[in-house]
Amino acid sequence: MATETSPLSRQPTKLDYASPTQFRFGIHQLPKVEFFTIGCNLPGINMGDAVFPTPFKDIPVMGDRLTYENLTINFIVDEHLENYRSLHEWMVAIGFPKDRKQFSDFRSNTSNTPEPPPISTSQDFGDTKISTSVSALFSDANLVVLSNKNNAIVQVLFRNLYPVSLSGLQYAQDATDVQYLTATADFSYQIYEFSDVG
Question: What is the pTM of this model?
Answer without folding.
Answer: 0.80
